[in-house]
UniProtKB/TrEMBL annotation:
The keyword Transit peptide does not apply. It holds the Pfam family SMC_N. GO terms for cellular component: bacterial nucleoid. The lineage of its organism: Bacteria, Bacillati, Actinomycetota, Actinomycetes, Frankiales. NCBIfam families: recN. This is DNA repair protein RecN. It comes from uncultured Frankineae bacterium. One of its GO terms (molecular function) is ATP binding. SUPFAM superfamilies: P-loop containing nucleoside triphosphate hydrolases (SSF52540). Keywords: ATP-binding, DNA damage, DNA repair, Nucleotide-binding. May be involved in recombinational repair of damaged DNA. GO terms for biological process: DNA recombination; DNA repair; SOS response. Belongs to the RecN family. Residues 2-530 form the RecF/RecN/SMC N-terminal domain.
Amino acid sequence: MLEEMRIRGLGVIDDAVLPLEPGLTVVTGETGAGKTMVVQGLGLLFGGRADAGRVRPDAPRAVVEGRLVLAPGSAALDRALDAGAELDDGTLLVSRSVSADGRSRAHLGGRSVPVGVLAELAEQVLAVHGQSDQQRLLKTARQRDALDRYAGPPVLGLRDRFRADWARWRDVRATLAQLRTEGAERLREAELLRLGVAEVEQVAPQPGEDVALSAEIERLANADDLRAAAAEAQVALTGDEDAPEGTDALQLLVAARRSVAAAAGHDPELSVLAGRLAELAHLATDVAGELASYLASVDADPVRLAVAQDRLAALTGLVRRSAASDVDGVLAWAARASDRLLELDGADDRIAALEEQDVRLESSLGALALELSAARTEAAQRFGSAVTVELAALAMPHAEVTARVSQRPADDGLRAGDRVLSAAADGVDEVELLLVPHPGAPPRALHKGASGGELSRVMLAVEVVFAGSDPVPVMVFDEVDAGVGGRAAVEVGRRLARLARSHQVIVVTHLPQVAAFADSHLLVVKAPDGVAAGAVTRSGVVALDEAGRVVELSRMLAGADTGLARGHAEELLAAAAQDRAAS
């Protein structure tokens, strides 16, 4: 609910604070006092069009501020928090200003926000019904949502099922379209993968084979150098038959060990060195034996060298074509390619399964859409009858409201029965509220079939019927009682009071019969200097107590506070209180 609103520099209102209570609040005042500025201030506060011409001539800007209480977890509160708003003691501060040069600014919860955010908030919070306002329920999508809420579980349950199946169907169709579009690309990809895998299978590389081949080729290509080096080393260790005795390393080590061993008994340290010389002699013998074995294994084999080089070239080609770093990378690529081929080859089976699912889902959706349409049509008949009854009590006895449920054919839509219909997540139906203002007149859309005053009464009747199912917590009616009086005026007040049981209702009225039903009464008054010659009119807002309400209703009844008018005002208040208590 809206706890408080402050208006500064807007039209005739200089600075006014409106304390707003739950239930029905009426705003009254003399003609020209600025009652309409209250409604315009609400519209401006919630994202309405900024009009610099509404700024007071003596003010630099018009400012409207509001204190809003939103239910935890509500869509409106979530939207405000998403916009960066912060709560102040559990309430949300909303502000809108318009400068004299037309510049507009909006703030929500202490943060500057685009004006569009306030308009989005208004969609969840506020419904304004006035002769010049764009009506929320005049939008066909809103009318369908409102009818669904009015119908309750019989329709809402079907709609929720349709939404869930609709989402599944759209996902299936999107996947099918993607698979079909990518069909040629899949064929090309599969062919390339098959060629690559076949080449790898033909070459049949082994893990690490390229590294081993490189080492083998290096050895075969340098076999003569390797043999020469090994032979020279072996001669150095074991000697040559043609060389003088004792010139090889092994003989020299043996001679050195003998020399040291002869004197080792005289010094333990020398004995240790003798042992180490013996170890060197044994090691030299082992190395000499290994060099002999190596010489026997090294063989210059040109045929084997050519074979190894050809094999390495084949492996190198595989590595290059698969963009791998080595043969192990080629093997990894081949494994991934085989998995991808299995996936690609299974696409046709997947398409066939999805096509079957598509047909099955469309069939069930079509049947569900027809069932939902029938339920909506039944609810629309009940709704139209209920609104027509309300209109009869609101001085429109010959008017009739109907809710038309229709479907549009489409070339590419949802097959429902023997027709293809335009569909969306909420079904195939379009709902439009139509008004027949008098017998013989054709049904027309609400905003085309009623005058401004009639439209407000029609919307009041609609809101009364929708009461309890409408999530918008705040409703504003501007001059909803235009053109009515007497008993009809009492009925207007009674219905506004009924609507105020489930909503916060703010009404600008000139009828005492309506004002008598208020839970709180605000009076827009002109300041004393507002009547001075050449002065700019100033108005303020006063919250009336019970005595003040009697005086104001007297003025509304007789134009003056007379004893007779007071008596009539007290009777109106008592009758309204009795009516509220009884209902």
